[in-house]
Write a structure and sequence with these properties.
The complex is a heterodimer of chains A (380) and B (258).
Chain A lengths: L1 E5 L9 H4 L16 H20 L4 E4 L13 H11 L4 E8 L7 H13 L4 E6 L4 H6 L6 H17 L4 E4 L4 E5 L12 E6 L3 H8 L7 E4 L3 H17 L9 E9 L3 H19 L4 H4 L7 H14 L7 H7 L3 E3 L1 H15 L3 E5 L7 H19 L2
Parallel strand pairs in A: 1-2, 1-11, 2-3, 3-4, 4-7, 7-8, 8-9, 9-10, 9-11
Antiparallel strand pairs in A: 5-6
Chain B lengths: L3 E7 L2 E8 L3 E6 L10 H7 L2 E6 L16 H15 L4 E6 L1 H12 L4 E7 L19 H6 L6 H8 L4 H18 L20 E6 L8 H9 L3 E6 L6 H4 L1 H14 L1
Parallel strand pairs in B: 3-4, 3-5, 5-6, 6-7, 7-8
Antiparallel strand pairs in B: 1-2, 2-4
Helix pairs in contact in B: 1-9, 2-3
Classes of the chains: A alpha/beta (380), B alpha/beta (258).
Chain lengths: 380, 258
């Protein structure tokens, strides 16, 4: 397996009592709750963790983009990537991902990624996402056109990387008379494109197409769903007439390792519970604005919600039982991940070893435990 | 007498339509929540007029043509609709989103329009007076914030919702987002062309509208040459539902003198 150390950079000093006076940790959470001195410390800690991950032997260190939220302090993840390039030498640096529909000129993304790829001499991995529903509230971009804008922006960026410029791009949403970015990407034909997803069938079908074969990563899902979505991707690849390689499929999970199951659960509980209940939690109409998902899949989600009734706080026990998070002794974590790898033949594991309010100290121990006690056993 | 449900076809688009009464032709364009039941307000208009209430393309069980991309497309569709009716002049009423579509029609072409009534219309923006954000409101707020008298949402919210109704509401919301999300509920160029509305016009606004503040009414009144403005007290965003008698009376007065 290829191992990625992924960071969201949450704002841990968040006042959780104040947080729940607002309908969401996104968009409407007043930024007066952000203290720049504490925030600067957060950035320093998190960048040190990412740099340390390279020393511990992770293949890839990764960041992503979120806006107007305490859940993740990286509205501009390429700035973090530039910093990581200067402080690392070997690891791939993945920006998984940038939210394509949210920008007004995708050529800017093509240019920034190409710069990073040159600065790093080809260590960049890109990720193309649509952004979480909340971000259609924070940017004002119309969610109804999310899929269209994503497809067009993707085409424009890949063409900007591969097609001799200058050329013109004529889309419905993006029209650029001169596409001719300097620099071009360092890697040939261009940096890898990974597709993190919650598993929508349209995305699976698109990512698996033979002309793309983009690695598909299921994020933050229960064990059964991870297996199901990855197998949908494999089936789709077969329908296209080829067998998906392990490097084409992967999953992202928050992971915590300590010397015993009991200790691991005790130390991880607060971080995992704050991640899902305080940082990520957002109401339905913000998470899934109209048009963000296809009508039929949103109808199904509505029915499911109606059947489930009111949502309550997730406990560490529930999160562990569903396999949404992986917590335990080295053996427990190894067995869990090995089983999932064998069930799905996934070749990419995206670990989140800092999550929610988890402290620097416990994060460091978690990273060291994972690197020494888990990673070597799952290496190919 | 309730309106009759019919199918109506203009060019290649089939829509559902309610129709009732006889007399002068009236066309009512519904708001973002879709085609309502046959309302008491419709009954009062239909007592004197031939009232048509189509369900917009993209809403309910009407066709959802791929060419419908923005409010201008909806306005052009309804200009085709008027052309195809064969009536020399039609009295046009629009509620909220429907009012926006009606105004977009009237700035383009008033030749088949006899009069225009705008009920708490979307379509313009008054800087410094933000519209309410009905996309961030939850399901209950979205109903409650439309009315001044909370007995109406009490009743609406206590009624059971079938899966079919929920699906229709969701589909309507998709089309509403397509038309109204960005810029939120207005067309930046509409206000500068309001002088092209040359027919007698009545703007009616609920004083307690939480979606579009009542101050918007004066801006419409200032932009449209032959326009009266009426603010209805103790009334939210939907005067036709909350104050049907007074709203119908104002509309019928306009129709009578136009």
């Amino acid at each position: 397996m290829q191992f990625t150390f992924f960071h969201l950079m949450p704002y841990r000093p968040l006042d959780m009592v104040e947080r729940h006076k607002h309908r969401s940790g996104w968009v409407v959470l007043p930024n007066s709750l952000y203290d720049p001195k504490k925030g600067a410390d957060e950035y320093q800690s998190y960048i040190e963790q990412l740099v340390y991950a390279e020393k511990l032997g992770f293949d890839v260190i990764a960041v992503n983009e979120h806006h107007q939220t305490a859940y993740g302090l990286m509205p501009a993840p390429n700035l973090i990537a530039a910093n990581l390039i200067a402080r690392t030498t070997r690891a791939k640096i993945a920006i998984i991902g940038r939210a394509l529909p949210l920008v007004n000129n995708p050529v800017n993304l093509a240019e920034e990624f190409a710069m990073l790829d040159n600065l790093s001499r080809g260590r960049i991995v890109t990720g193309f996402v649509r952004g979480i529903g909340n971000e259609y509230h924070s940017t004002g971009i119309n969610p109804f056109f999310s899929h269209e804008r994503y497809q067009e922006a993707h085409d424009l960026i890949v063409q900007a990387w591969t097609k001799p410029g200058p050329f013109s791009f004529e889309g419905e949403h993006f029209n650029v008379r001169y596409v001719n970015p300097w620099p071009r990407p360092y890697q040939t034909p261009h940096p890898e494109i990974w597709i993190p997803s919650m598993g929508s069938s349209e995305t699976v079908k698109w990512a698996a197409a033979p002309e793309r074969k983009y690695p598909f990563l299921v994020t933050f899902s229960a064990r059964d769903l991870i297996a199901r979505y990855l197998n949908v991707y494999r089936d789709q690849a077969r329908a296209y007439g080829y067998e998906a390689s392990p490097s084409q499929v992967g999953f992202a999970s928050p992971v915590y390792v300590a010397d015993t199951d009991e200790r691991a659960k005790k130390e991880a509980a607060q971080g995992m519970e704050t991640l899902f209940n305080d940082f990520l939690a957002t109401p339905f109409q913000m998470l899934l604005p109209p048009g963000y998902s296809a009508l039929q899949s949103m109808k199904n989600t509505m029915r499911m919600r109606k059947a489930l009734g009111a949502t309550k706080r997730h406990t560490i026990d529930e999160l562990m039982a569903s396999g949404t998070v992986v917590v335990g002794s080295p053996k427990t974590v190894r067995d869990h991940l090995a089983r999932l790898r064998d069930d799905t033949r996934a070749g990419k594991l995206i670990t989140m070893l800092q999550f929610g309010t988890l402290s620097d100290e416990l994060t460091k121990r978690n990273m060291e435990m994972f690197a020494s006690e888990v990673m070597p056993h799952l290496r190919d | 007498m309730p309106g009759t449900e019919t199918k109506h076809k203009v060019r290649d688009v089939n829509v559902r339509m309610l129709r009732g009464g006889s007399g002068r032709p009236v066309l009512f364009l519904h708001g973002a929540n879709g085609l309502p039941q046959w309302l008491p307000f419709f009954e009062q208009i239909a007592a004197k007029c031939d009232l048509r209430v189509p369900e917009h393309p993209g809403y309910g069980t009407s066709d959802n043509p791929a060419w419908l991309r923005d409010i201008g497309d909806l306005a052009m569709y309804y200009l085709d609709f008027l052309d195809a009716l064969g009536e020399p002049k039609v009295h046009l009423i629009g509620q909220s989103l429907g009012g926006w579509a009606a105004a977009e029609m009237a700035v383009r072409n008033c030749s088949h329009i006899a009069s225009l009534t705008l009920l708490d219309p979307a379509g313009i923006r008054v800087k410094g007076l933000l519209s309410g954000d009905n996309f961030i409101w939850d399901a209950e707020e979205s109903v409650r914030n439309l009315y001044y008298d909370q007995k109406i949402p009490d009743q609406l919210l206590s009624a059971p919702v079938t899966d079919e109704q929920a699906d229709i509401a969701l589909g309507n919301r998709f089309t509403t987002a397509k038309l109204g999300w960005q810029p939120r509920w207005y067309n930046p160029s509409l206000e500068r062309w309001l002088h092209r509305i040359t027919v007698p016009t009545q703007v009616i606004w609920g004083e307690n509208d939480k979606l579009f503040p009542k101050e918007y009414a004066a801006r419409w009144g200032a932009g449209i040459p032959n326009c009266k403005v009426e603010i209805i007290p103790q009334c939210g965003h939907v005067p036709a539902v909350e104050k049907p008698e007074v709203t119908a009376k104002i509309v019928l007065d306009l129709i009578g003198r136009s």
